[in-house]
Structure formats: C-alpha cells, structure tokens
Amino acid sequence: MSEEEVRKRRGGGSEGPVPPRSWLTPYLLMMLRAWQGYGYELVRQLALYGFGWVDPGSVYRALRELERDGYVLSHWDTSNGSGPARRIYTITDAGIEALGLWASTLDGYRRMLERFFDDYTGVTPPSAAASDNSRDQEPTASE
Questions:
Q1: Which of 74, 85, 119, 132 is the most buried if burial means most Cβ atoms within 10 Å?
Q2: 116 pLDDT exceeds 80?
Q3: Across the strands, what pairs with 77?
C-alpha cells in the first residue's frame, strides 16, 4: 500500500503529515493527564490532534500496553444507565513520569527539526553556523 493510500485510509488525505503511530503513547498520556477518558473519546480526540482516522483497535492495544506497564489504570463505568458499560482510563504517577520523558524526547526532536528548517529555509546560512561554532572554541597558541 502506498503512502498516499495509507494517508487516505487514516483520513489525512494528501494535505499534510500524519503523526507516526508510535506517537499514540505520548498523546494518550497527555490527554489522560488532563481528564479521564474512554477509548472511543480518545480516538475522537486524536483526530483533533492531527492523527486523522485512527484504527480504534490500535488505540485500545496502546491503552492495554500502557495499563500493563503501569502508566494508566482502568475501570468499568456502568453509570451510563441505558447504554453499555465503558472502560474509563486514568493516568498514574508513573504515567505522568513517562509523559515527562516523552516530552523531553520530543523537545529534542523539535529542536533538531527547527535547526533543519532554519538551515533549509536559509534563516541560518551554513557559513554563519560554522562561524558560530568557531566562536565557541578556545583560541590556540598561534592566535
């Protein structure tokens, strides 16, 4: 299946990038830090974050893994009255810690991408970047 077909299936069309599926973990943890949620609502919220269509099975698998790893807890909510019971997910202290690690990692990627696009768009010409590096070096005896 081509990348274009994958984007269309995921609801992204060809208009922009779709976050990698491995990013489900930090996004789920981030959403659960703000509020308790059930799987279907988390799937809907992921679309608002730019994931487009997400296979609900992928989200439920990710939630089970997060629960197995101790990052989230779940319980059945039967207070819906006439509707079926829903599994409600809540982040744990370990999940908040893991989210902090993800945020640090993603911040490193963000800085790396900013540098790429600065260089790509010519905001920081390569010669200026090289001269910036030379200012950080110790002068030699011959200078």
A1: 74
A2: yes
A3: 86
